[in-house]
Amino acid sequence: MKYPFFFLLTGLFLFGNIATAQNNEPWTSSQLMAPAFLAEKITSNQANDMLVLCVGPGALIKGSVNIGAAHEAGNIQKLKDYLKGVKKDTEVIIYCGCCPFDRCPNIRPAFTALKEMGFNNARLLDLPKNIKADWLDKNYPAAGNSDHN
């Protein structure tokens, strides 16, 4: 009779740890921005009051600024230097897109830096697969793409 209780407790413990692990990201779900939303803002020229920063291998979104791969300490400093004079309530959207979120070495250090700097309107572009599948393949505005200039 004690074994079913043991399995129940073990299952609850494992489920609790999985649920907790999923909440260990530096961002909340409300801080994720849908690619379609940002694409519409860019296309309709309503992105002027936001900063879109690439913290990955290269800026591929129209109007975004290439900071460099944020897993490199020098690029975190570059991010901090770039944002020094920016108002803390500015909407700052970061993205990488080199790989799926769970393996990306760049988004966590960059988002953590935004939080530490006090940016209360920080967002992460929701690119769960990568920049190609979640942005470029959907023909969203890309840097250097004359169709969207």
Task: State the main characteristics.
single chain, five-stranded parallel β-sheet, 5 strands
Largest sheet geometry: 5 strands, parallel
How do the strands of the widest beta sheet line up side by side? 1-5-4-2-3
Which blocks of ≥5 consecutive residues have pLDDT under 50? 5-21
Helix content: 25-40%
Number of helices: 5
Rough shape? globular
Query: From the alpha-carbon coordinates, what is the Rg to the nearest angstrom?
Result: 18 Å
Overall pLDDT: 86
Q: How many runs of DSSP E, i.e. beta strands? A: 5
In terms of quaternary structure, what is this?
A: single chain
Distance between the termini: 70 Å
Structural class: alpha/beta
Give the ordered list of helices and strands.
Answer: HEHEEHEHEH
**Residues in β-strands, percent:** 5-15%
Describe the structure.
By secondary structure, the protein is an alpha/beta fold. 36% of the residues lie in helices and 12% in strands. The chain has helices spanning 2-22, 35-43, 73-82, 107-116, 131-134; strands spanning 32-33, 50-54, 65-66, 91-95, 122-125. Strands 1-5-4-2-3 form a five-stranded parallel β-sheet. Strand 4 (91-95), helix 4 (107-116) and strand 5 form a beta-alpha-beta unit. Residues 5-21 have low confidence and may be disordered.
Summarize it.
By secondary structure, the protein is of the alpha/beta class. It has helices at 2-22, 35-43, 73-82, 107-116, 131-134; strands at 32-33, 50-54, 65-66, 91-95, 122-125.
